[in-house]
Amino acid sequence: MKSKFLNEFKTFIAKGNAIDLAIGVIMGSAFTAITNSLVNDILMPCISALFGGSDYSGLKLVLREATETSEAIVLNYGMLINAIFNFLIIALFLFFVVKVLNKMRAKKEEPAPAPAAPVKSNQEILLEEIRDLLKKN
Questions:
Q1: Across-strand partners of 61?
Q2: E strands along 29-112, which residues?
Q3: How far apart are CA 134 and CA 137, in angstroms?
Q4: Which of 23, 61, 118, 120 sits at a 20 to 30 Å CA gap from 3?
Q5: Which residue spans traverse the membrane (predicted)?
C-alpha cells in the first residue's frame, strides 16, 4: 500500500501542472518583490511629493486606552489606506504589463493558412473520369 501511495505521489509531482504551479508561485514571489520595490521606492515618493505626504500608517482611532488590566483597542486605519494605495498601484502596473504582453502575443499570432486542396489518389481521379464519361453518354 505504501508503494502505491508513493507511486501516485511521484506521478502527481511529475505532472506538468504541479511543476507549472510551483514555478508560477516562485515567479509570483519574485515579481512581488519587484512590484513592492517599484511602489515603495519609486511611486510612493513621487506621490508623496505631489500630495504632501502619502504615509498614512500613523493614522489611528483609539477606542480604549490601555489600563493596568487591559490592552488598548486601536483601529489602525492608516495601515489600511497604505495597503489600498499599494494594491491600486500594483494593480494598475500589472494592468499595463498584461496589456503590453497581449499586444505582443497578438502580433506573434498569425492567421492559420487556408487548408490546401485535398490530394486525390489515382483511383479517385479514374473514378471521376469514368463518372464524367457516363454523364456524357
A1: 75
A2: 61-64, 73-75
A3: 5
A4: 23
A5: 12-34, 77-98
End-to-end CA separation in angstroms for the chain: 77
Q: How many CA atoms lie within 13 A of 134 on its CB side?
A: 6
Q: How far apart are CA 137 and CA 16, in angstroms?
A: 64
Residue-by-residue DSSP string for 69-93: SS--EEE-HHHHHHHHHHHHHHHHH
Q: What is the pLDDT along the chain (137 residues), one digit of tens a residue?
A: 678 888 888 787 777 677 788 888 888 888 888 877 877 788 777 877 777 766 677 788 999 898 988 899 999 888 888 788 878 877 887 888 889 988 888 877 666 777 777 788 888 888 888 999 899 87
Supply 113's cell numbers.
493558412
